[in-house]
Design a protein that fits this description.
This protein has 475 residues and is α/β, with parallel strands linked by helices. The protein has 20 helices and 20 strands.
Length: 475
């Protein structure tokens, strides 16, 4: 049972957010973890509104229309023999640069050249950028293969699983109804976790994982033990992310494909996450690291005759061993050796803005213990809020209130301000805070960058002296 405080908090979330408030326990109990969290919560809202035995109807709906990739041939057999099928999948569309024709990417079928009705693309423009989850109706007609050799599979209908309209002002105004502690707890429940099981410090560490989703061109690293929810947050909180979990990554996938003329993930995502960083393998490492460091510094990238600019943030995550000491859990591995060899470079590390202390977070073991036991903001709505918030930076505003010690480099100052900007947008979206709150978030930003500076001193002590970064709040 939730505490009296939690009961009041959940009631306030329902009152303030109305239709955007979701009971996260339902999403935890409905066995639909194969789908992203934001998709599950959208479907729950739709089926609950219809009443009746909605949970059973929802399970049957997903079982009927969702096909895992291993059932690709079964699905193709059904499509080619029956002529039409409906599937739950992510729909992404690309445009052929020579012909101007539009083609659909269907992950469950491993197809990149399905034909699609133009009216579907015009009605759902996000399929041209991030892609959208929904119910896709496919038809099969061998007589309509075009001159480019596209498959005779045609997307003839699409029902998106996404909130049709986002009221950003509601989110800003809602913040005024909550104390800082209440708002932090609201966000913790929104990302699916139980606020009662984390200290205030741990909650802030958890929320710093969201900084790359609200602030453009932020480069963060996180080190910690397995099963603390690192990947979960990026996979389920926002559909504007791409996660690479080990394996090979090429310049074509990350930046730009010279053969197909298709922009890479950095060009189209809000955040690209390199999970299991020690297992990442870069094809053509010298080219990749050169382009990666250039992008991390400037936000620009070049490949062949293609020049581009992006606000995509980068996250590098690694698993490390920890041990319990008096001050809590601390890492017992040197960060350097968690990275692939080509990344063990001071020039690369200096471009990382901050290091998230994932070692401070407990492992998520039981749903009834660590997952949310009440209300939070609907994930599909929250994902759009995070995306919308990226359009504005608070770096200039923060600069008016703080000043830094003389040992700050340009990169130090940029890093601290970007981390702080992201934190302020998350915790004070209404734009109001006091001096104590300003210092609290600036302390975190400085702490995260200080870890980078300390690491640089280990890598290149002659170039990076061991110095303490200090800031002062202007009166």
């Amino acid at each position: 049972m939730p505490t009296e405080y939690s009961a009041r908090l959940f009631a306030k979330i329902q009152r303030v957010f109305g239709e955007y408030a979701v009971d996260k326990r339902i999403a935890n109990s409905v066995e639909l973890m194969r789908l992203p969290r934001y998709v599950v919560e959208y479907l729950i809202g739709e089926f609950m509104a219809k009443g009746g035995d909605w949970e059973e109807k929802l399970r049957k709906f997903v079982a009927k229309y969702y096909y895992e990739p291993k059932y690709k041939d079964l699905l193709l057999h059904k499509l080619t023999t029956e002529g039409t099928v409906k599937i739950i999948d992510e729909l992404k569309v690309w445009v052929h640069p020579k012909t101007g024709k539009h083609y659909a990417i269907l992950p469950s079928l491993a197809i990149r050249d399905a034909q699609i009705l133009l009216e579907i693309v015009e009605k759902n423009p996000n399929v041209l950028t991030m892609g959208m989850w929904g119910l896709i109706t496919l038809s099969y007609d061998p007589s309509v293969v075009d001159e480019e050799g596209a498959t005779p599979i045609i997307v003839v209908d699409f029902i998106p699983f996404q909130a049709p309209a986002i009221d950003f002002n509601l989110f800003k105004e809602a913040r005024r109804e909550f104390t800082l502690e209440e708002w932090v707890d609201t966000l913790i429940n929104t990302i699916g976790l139980n606020h009662e099981r984390y200290s205030f410090r741990q909650k802030l560490v958890l929320l710093t994982r969201l900084i790359p989703l609200v602030e453009g061109n932020v480069n963060l690293m996180e080190f910690g033990p397995r099963a603390t929810g690192k990947t979960y947050i990026y996979r389920h909180v926002s559909h504007y992310t791409r996660i690479f979990s080990g394996g090979n990554i090429s310049p074509a996938v990350l930046f730009y494909n010279l053969r197909t003329k298709v922009p890479g993930e950095i060009a189209t995502r809000d955040a690209v996450v390199f999970d299991e960083i020690s297992k990442i393998r870069l094809t053509n490492p010298s080219e990749m690291m050169g382009k990666l460091k250039d992008y991390m510094e400037s936000g620009h990238y070049e490949r062949g005759d293609k020049r581009g600019v992006s606000t995509c943030s980068l996250v590098f995550m690694g698993n490390i061993e920890v041990e319990l000491r008096e001050e809590g859990y601390v890492p017992v591995e040197e960060f350097t050796y968690v990275l692939p060899k080509e990344m063990r470079d001071s020039a690369f590390v200096d471009r990382v803005h901050g290091i998230v202390p994932g070692w401070e977070l407990p492992k998520i073991k039981q749903a009834k213990y660590h997952l949310s036991q009440g209300y939070g903001v609907a994930s599909d709505y929250f994902a759009e809020i995070l995306h919308e918030t990226r359009k504005e930076s608070l770096v200039a505003k923060i600069s008016r209130y703080v000043e830094f010690s003389d040992n700050f480099t340009i990169r130090d100052e940029r890093a601290v301000k970007k981390i702080a900007s992201g934190l302020f947008k998350l915790l004070f979206p209404h734009g109001e805070w006091d001096k104590k709150e300003l210092k609290l978030l600036m302390d975190i930003a400085i702490e995260y960058r200080q870890r980078v500076r300390d690491w640089l001193h280990i890598l290149a002590p002659g170039e990076y002296p061991k110095e303490k970064l200090i800031f002062r709040v202007r009166v």
